């Protein structure tokens, strides 16, 4: 195949890139490995992690259209109560982690709908159930990418003027010989106060395999998982003697051990949920933390139970990483992570302490249909950390940390292509480190972070941008990934239309200004509003 823009990976960044490029008239080939498009929002089943001001500003217009579309599905198709239907900022799951907790399948439908007109017109061609296996280059240019089927189909080779790596782990970087980094950089390189003295390329954040459960009558206990005895007794150092499979885990911000509660279907008022983690972490009752369906927002009797999305410290897998190891080794480690998640479920069903003094919740039932999988676990692994390009601009802790920046705010970039905000939130990692969870400041996304130092026609479109291990912790969330992808798609189409190359656009003020005007015209915010009070 030959196309203008190849986007590898149809997660949030990849879809945003494809929409932006096709919206400017480019022909796009978009690829996806898993059954669902949407990445962390859908196949990974992670409700959107967003900043407190998301209902008013701080996201792109297309990302806002996605959020509005999700709410619209619930208002049109679900038997909401009158009060829920009238809730302007409807939170279908009434979870405390996000103002828009919802079932992943709903987001799949909205994303498919957003792509539909471009697919119908032939501007976007979606290649499904394929993954990149090799690439060719000519000097500093990527000339083609070969995609192998994961379901036994033929290989496809795609040549494109511009290629966007929107995979979850930067899969194109080693295939194209693009320089990149993994794990912790050394403080001597980045100057970051939280970095180690020596680089630790194998020290990568935990990955997770999420799942959804309901609580209904009957005994729905699964078969005892393989390796359950290991996981049942495993006590990570950061847990200081407590077991991973428990209601106890380190508080990410204080590192003190906190014991959470777990009460299914507690009868709370979902309309009173105020999902703002700047005020309340919201994880006191784990059932409510990432709840993705609240039965009391629906007409009485429609649902037997809420839906609880399990993405807690107890399923964080940090025994080993999966970057730059043989594929069979990576697959074995992912299989082990899946066993950990099933072990947590089995522990909850059979041994978990209850508030009434009993043990076990046999009424917990997996919902494979909600996950779109055979085993009830998410289709895809939630990767918190990717390979990251050696970029023209690398964002470091010194650019965004509130402890460093104070009231000056984050570094401002002349080449800003968007904004984002989240705490620097690092989960335990494969090197034995515990949480790093510290305040950041509302930040900008520099165009230079999307550009490899050397490769000229490959753009980063996901968590593979020029951040460090530390700043990845605040640049890795849903709206930032979408903004990164959207900016990359616009840039590819802009360069096709003007004949300029990405590095030239970033370097020359007059060309940069033209490109940024196009971004703002399509609803991409380049700066945070002045005069707002930003809590940390």
Overall description:
- By secondary structure, the protein is of the alpha+beta class.
- It is built from 16 helices and 21 strands.
- Strands 1, 2, 3, 4, 5, 6 and 21 form a 7-stranded mixed β-sheet that branches.
- A hairpin with a 6-residue loop joins strand 10 and strand 11.
- Helix 1 (12-23) packs parallel to helix 14.
- It is globular and about 70 Å long.
- It starts with a strand and ends in a 15-residue tail after the last helix.
- 53% of the residues are buried.
- The model has no long low-confidence stretch (mean pLDDT 97).
- This is FAD-dependent oxidoreductase.
- It holds the Pfam family FAD_oxidored.
Q: How does the major sheet shape up?
A: 7 strands, mixed
Number of helices: 16
Strand content: 15-25%
Low-confidence stretches: none
Structural class of the secondary structure composition?
alpha+beta
- Quote the average pLDDT: 97
> Helix fraction?
25-40%
Pfam families: FAD_oxidored
InterPro entries: FAD/NAD-bd_sf, NadB
Protein name: FAD-dependent oxidoreductase
SSE layout and pairing:
Layout: E1 2-8, H1 12-23, E2 28-32, H2 61-77, H3 82-85, H4 104-120, E3 124-128, E4 130-138, E5 141-149, E6 156-165, H5 172-176, E7 180-181, H6 187-190, E8 207-208, E9 211-215, H7 228-233, E10 248-250, E11 257-259, H8 286-289, E12 291-293, E13 307-310, H9 327-350, E14 364-366, H10 368-371, E15 382-383, E16 388-389, H11 397-400, H12 402-405, E17 416-420, E18 424-426, E19 436-438, E20 443-446, E21 458-460, H13 472-475, H14 478-498, H15 502-507, H16 509-521
Parallel strand pairs: 1-2, 1-6, 2-3, 6-21
Antiparallel strand pairs: 4-5, 5-6, 7-16, 8-15, 9-13, 9-14, 10-11, 12-13, 17-20, 18-19
Helix pairs in contact: 1-4, 1-14, 2-4
Protein name: FAD-dependent oxidoreductase
InterPro entries: FAD/NAD-bd_sf, NadB
């Amino acid at each position: 195949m030959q196309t203008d823009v190849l986007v590898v990976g149809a997660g949030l960044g990849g879809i945003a890139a494809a929409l932006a490029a096709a919206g400017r008239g480019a022909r796009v080939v978009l690829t996806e490995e898993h059954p669902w498009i949407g990445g962390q929002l859908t196949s990974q089943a992670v409700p959107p992690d967003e900043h407190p001001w998301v209902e008013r500003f701080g996201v792109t217009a297309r990302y806002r259209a996605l959020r509005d579309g999700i709410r619209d599905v619930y208002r049109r198709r679900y038997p909401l109560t009158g009060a829920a239907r009238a809730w302007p900022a409807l939170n279908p799951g009434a979870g405390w982690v996000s103002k828009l907790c919802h079932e992943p399948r709903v987001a799949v439908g909205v994303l498919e709908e957003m792509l539909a007109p471009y697919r119908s017109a032939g501007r976007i061609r979606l290649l499904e159930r394929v993954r990149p296996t090799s690439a060719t280059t000519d000097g500093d240019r990527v000339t083609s990418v070969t995609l192998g089927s994961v379901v036994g189909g033929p290989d496809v080779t795609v040549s494109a003027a511009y290629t966007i790596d929107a995979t979850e782990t930067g899969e194109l970087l080693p295939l194209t010989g693009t320089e990149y980094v993994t794990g912790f950089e050394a403080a001597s390189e980045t100057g970051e106060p939280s970095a180690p003295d020596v680089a630790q390329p194998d020290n990568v954040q935990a990955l997770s395999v999420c799942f959804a459960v309901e609580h209904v009558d009957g005994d729905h206990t699964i078969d005892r998982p393989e390796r359950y005895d290991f996981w049942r007794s495993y006590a990570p150092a950061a847990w200081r003697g407590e077991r991973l499979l428990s209601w106890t885990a380190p508080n990410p911000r204080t590192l003190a051990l906190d014991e959470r509660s777990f009460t299914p279907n507690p009868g709370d008022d979902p309309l009173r949920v105020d999902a703002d983690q700047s005020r309340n972490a919201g994880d006191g009752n784990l059932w409510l933390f990432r709840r993705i369906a609240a039965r009391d927002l629906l007409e009485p009797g429609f649902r037997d139970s809420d839906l609880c999305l399990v993405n807690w410290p107890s399923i964080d897998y940090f025994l080993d990483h999966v970057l730059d190891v043989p594929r069979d080794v990576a697959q074995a480690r992912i299989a082990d992570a899946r066993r950990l998640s099933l072990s947590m479920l089995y522990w909850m069903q059979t041994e978990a302490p209850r508030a009434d003094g009993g043990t076990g919740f046999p009424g917990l039932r997996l919902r494979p249909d909600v996950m779109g999988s055979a085993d009830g676990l998410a289709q895809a692994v939630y990767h918190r950390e990717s390979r990251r390009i050696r970029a023209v601009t690398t964002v470091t802790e010194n650019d965004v940390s509130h402890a460093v920046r104070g009231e000056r705010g984050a570094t401002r970039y002349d080449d800003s292509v968007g904004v984002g905000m989240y705490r620097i939130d690092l989960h335990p990692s494969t090197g034995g480190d515990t949480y790093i969870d510290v305040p950041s400041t509302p930040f900008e996304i520099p165009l230079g972070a999307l550009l490899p130092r050397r490769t000229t026609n490959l753009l980063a479109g996901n968590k593979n941008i020029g951040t460090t291990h530390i700043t990845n912790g605040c640049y890795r969330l849903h709206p930032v990934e979408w903004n990164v992808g959207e900016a990359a798609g616009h840039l590819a189409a802009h360069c096709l239309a003007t004949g300029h190359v990405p590095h030239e656009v970033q370097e020359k003020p007059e060309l940069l200004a033209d490109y940024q005007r196009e971004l703002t015209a399509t609803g991409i915010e380049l700066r945070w509003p002045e005069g707002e009070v930003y809590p940390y």
